[in-house]
């Protein structure tokens, strides 16, 4: 496990000193803060603050726009940039297993992404400090759902990043997969037959809205998000392992 923790520390340090990642964090905070202030002006929200978690953690505009696109911007450097700089091959031939490389990088980027959602959670703490009654159950559930969805999108971003040194394709490919995971079930949920049943069973925004942001914990969304995350991490491992016989 020593190589794993050594690589984890290296990845965390490289993220902490990266101006690009801190720029992304600043943009995330600014956009979420502006959206937070915008929806607070809504009479509907002012009359019922229990609706607030669903706007920030459920089917709100920023979940549809920011959440699929920001994780691949973090993960593009994990493999694609190392491939471009020529440091990936020495890493993969070092005395550390491929799965340890993947998990160390993945855990590091997940820990860093906690800071992103920590800033959103701080907005609720600010309202609570001003005396506003907060629906903490729905907030905790919504935050859990947002974190699990983010971890899934980070896994898809890692898979896209593992395919080469083109940073644009790494970021764009990860974002495309994330948008597909969001939009395809939304588009197909009304379809008849098997297609509609499958779409309804993997409807991410429905999970976020009616389960997590409602303060309800259901095992099916939890299992689906975790299993899909593990699946994309497995695909990343397959891609890295295949580099021994594929370019």
Structural topology:
Layout: H1 2-16, H2 19-40, H3 43-47, H4 52-57, H5 61-75, H6 80-85, H7 88-92, H8 98-129, H9 136-161, H10 167-188, H11 193-201, H12 204-212, H13 219-242
Structure characterization notes:
Helices cover about 80% and strands about 0% of the residues. It starts with a helix and ends in a 5-residue tail after the last helix. The protein has about 250 residues and is mainly α. The protein contains 13 helices and no strands. The longest helix is centred in the middle third of the chain and has 32 residues, at about 100-130. The protein has one domain. α5 (about 60-75) runs antiparallel to α10 (about 165-190) and α8 packs antiparallel against α13. The protein has helices at about 1-15, 20-40, 45, 50-55, 60-75, 80-85, 90, 100-130, 135-160, 165-190, 195-200, 205-210, 220-240. It is globular, with a radius of gyration of 19 Å.
Overview features:
about 250 residues; about 80% helix; single chain; mainly alpha; globular; about 0% strand
In short:
By secondary structure, the chain is an all-alpha fold. It has one domain. Helices cover 79% and strands 0% of the residues.
From the N-terminal CA to the C-terminal CA, the straight-line distance is 29 Å
Question: What proportion of the residues form beta strands (DSSP E)?
Answer: under 5%
Mean pLDDT level? 86
What is the overall number of helices? 13
pLDDT under 50 segments (min length 5)?
Answer: none
Q: In this structure, how is the largest beta sheet organized?
A: none
Order of helices and strands: HHHHHHHHHHHHH
Computed structural class? mainly alpha
What is the 3D shape?
globular
Number of strands: 0
* Count of the domains: 1
Radius of gyration: 19 Å
**Helix content class:** over 70%
């Amino acid at each position: 496990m020593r190589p794993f923790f050594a690589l984890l520390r290296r990845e965390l340090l490289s993220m902490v000193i990266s101006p690009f990642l801190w720029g992304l964090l600043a943009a995330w905070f600014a956009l979420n803060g502006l959206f937070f202030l915008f929806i607070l002006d809504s009479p509907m929200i002012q009359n019922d603050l229990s609706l607030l978690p669903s706007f920030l953690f459920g089917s709100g505009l920023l979940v549809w726009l920011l959440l699929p696109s920001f994780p691949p911007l973090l993960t593009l450097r994990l493999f694609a940039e190392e491939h471009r700089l020529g440091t990936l091959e020495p890493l993969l031939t070092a005395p550390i297993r491929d799965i340890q490389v993947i998990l160390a990088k993945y855990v590091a980027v997940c820990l860093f992404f906690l800071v992103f959602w920590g800033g959103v959670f701080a907005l609720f703490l600010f309202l609570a400090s001003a005396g506003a009654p907060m629906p903490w159950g729905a907030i905790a559930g919504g935050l859990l759902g947002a974190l699990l969805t983010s971890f899934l999108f980070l896994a898809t971003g890692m898979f896209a990043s593992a395919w080469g040194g083109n940073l644009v394709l790494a970021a764009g490919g990860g974002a495309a997969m994330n948008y597909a995971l969001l939009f395809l079930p939304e588009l197909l949920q009304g379809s008849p037959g098997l297609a509609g049943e499958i779409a309804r069973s993997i409807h991410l925004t429905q999970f976020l809205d009616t389960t997590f942001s409602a303060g309800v914990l259901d095992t099916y969304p939890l299992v689906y998000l975790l299993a899909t995350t593990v699946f994309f991490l497995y695909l990343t491992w397959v891609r890295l392992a295949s580099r021994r016989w594929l370019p």
